[in-house]
Design goal:
The structure is a single chain. This protein is an alpha+beta fold and 167 residues long. It is 62% helix and 9% strand. The protein has helices at residues 2-24, 59-89, 97-124, 141-162, and strands at residues 29-30, 34-36, 40-43, 48-51, 138-139. A hairpin with a 3-residue loop joins strand 2 and strand 3. The termini are close together.
Length: 167
């Protein structure tokens, strides 16, 4: 039982780490001379970064991705704290339903963010504020990590739903 508990905790911390990295790091859309995320666009040859502001085309979509990623990270952290509390407060045989619900909310938020970015990426990168090479970029590792975090939060939400407290 202790090994299962350790696995669940490590899995949850891994999910939170993936969410933090994908939210913070500057690699949602990359190319040879640039990298961009939901916060800023950086050019690698001049080492300059510009914040993405309302002057950018489809700024509302970027804000929705930002908000959803932040919410997913917060929900994941709250779910971990609730799990630790429920570990000591639940009676034997009860399920971790509250933790599961919060983790499913985290899963939903990261899915929404990654889906919006997937759907709107062409329009997002056609803004005149971007350098011309941005249109020929490709998805970066932060974007991939967001989808992996989606799978991890979904699996951990299911684990919490099935899991019962034992002695």
């Amino acid at each position: 039982m202790l090994i299962l508990l350790a696995f669940i905790i490590v899995f949850h911390i891994t999910s939170a780490a993936l969410l933090f990295i994908s939210t913070i790091d500057n690699a949602w859309w990359v190319g040879d001379n640039f990298s961009t995320d939901v916060w800023r666009m950086c050019t690698t040859n001049t080492s300059t970064c510009r914040a993405i502001t309302d002057q950018f085309r489809e700024y509302q979509s970027i804000q929705a991705v930002q908000a959803s990623m932040i919410l997913s990270t917060i929900f994941c952290c709250v779910a971990f704290l609730v799990f630790i509390l429920q570990l000591f407060r639940l009676k034997q045989g009860e399920r971790f339903v509250l933790t599961s619900i919060i983790q499913f909310l985290s899963c939903l938020c990261v899915m929404i963010a990654a889906s919006i970015y997937t759907d709107r990426h062409e329009e997002l990168h056609k803004s005149n504020e971007y350098i011309p090479e941005v249109a020929e970029g490709k998805y970066g590792y932060s974007f991939v990590l967001a989808w992996i975090a989606f799978a991890f939060t979904l699996i951990s939400g299911i684990m919490y739903l099935i899991l019962r407290k034992r002695k």
